[in-house]
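help with this:

***
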Amino acid sequence: MKTILITAYALNPFKGSEDGMGWNFVRQAAKHHRVIAVTRKNNRIHIEKYLQQHPEIAQQANLITFYYFDWPAFLLQWKKGPLLSMIYFYAWQLTLALWLLKKRFAVDVVHNLNFHNNWTPTFLWLLGKPLVWGPVGHHPKIPANFLLPVYGKVAYLKDRSLWGMKNVFWKTDPFLHLSARKSGQILCMHPEAAQKLHLHSGQYSILPSVATEAPGNANTGIQAKKKFCIISAGRFVPLKGFDITIRAFARFYRNLQPEEQQQVSLMLVGSGPCLPLLQQIIAQEQIGNAVQITEWLPRAALQELYKQASAFLFPSHEGAGMVVAEAMSYGLPVLCWNNCGPGRFLHPQSGLKVNYGTYEEGIKQFSENLLLLFRNKDFYLRETDLSTQRFKAHFDWNIRAGQLRRIYRFAYNAHYGITPAAATTPAPQF
């Protein structure tokens, strides 16, 4: 049994997104390997509390040894806001590698797990071991016609400044290029991530960063729901496209007969700086009676909403989307853009992906897809089946253990020049 060193900046069993992904990847790796997991000191209390509360998990996790690394507290006072936090993340990666050099852990493979971005490097190559990096990726630019008219120049400049900064790293950071060259296998969330790093086919696998557990008693099928409830969840920020969600629902709602309108509703779950704008759009569209906004909920409560919902409307411009995997696990049809994020998550045969065009064309297509789901039972059931298939094939946490086993073997063989590495597929090309 090989020993894998996994470094995860974010690792918290009580949270979703990056933190939950870190926790679950570590647990899946431990199904076939001994694992040394290194994360930030602020995660220690949560990990230990969770293991105390879940002795059955603690027993399963007996092959995991946790270590915690951070800078001294007096040096962390300046780490405020996204930019400074990213600078700290970059520096944390470097100093962590130097700290690990002194520790001299006896490991076979090292794996830099998260944050998910492909524009800041890993420094674990300093350890001289077979290296796995990722999943990594990036959010694409938000199309200007979906940003400027709705969110204004400040939001547009912020998005383009971030995109410009990413390009500076991609083009000029020598450590980023060194990370790509030294990695035995890079896990990319989408092909665009590999393109930005100029990777050749043998260097990377396409593997989504998100996954979730199979739910119990998921009520799929339109006949099982009392109402046709459309749900959308996430941060209320321009990237998530909640303005499209509201306006597409409003157009769909106005195309219904009065008695049909009584059967439908939209629930927005989340929080964020764009809440006042979204409330203003709801008022302008005059659909306040059919829309409910709920602040972000604990994961268990959100799962109950998935069970009650009939469809998941998610016109986000991002390159990932944990909530999409969660929605599909409940058999919910997911409506999204045909992009490198949620668009790649959906089944290739799904008819609910919308191509980018004008702002009005997007609203029209999303609303028409909602109407089709609402009125065409066969189409609805087909989409629920495709969501369930897609979840089982690619987004169930239980399949990650086998994928990681193959990936680690591939990186190990490639590093030491063992012949089977050339003929082994490390992971499914998602």
Remarks:
- The chain has two domains: 3-148+174-211+396-423, 222-394.
- The chain has a mean pLDDT of 91.
- The first strand starts at residue 3 and ends at 8.
- Residues 48 and 172 are 40 Å apart (CA to CA).
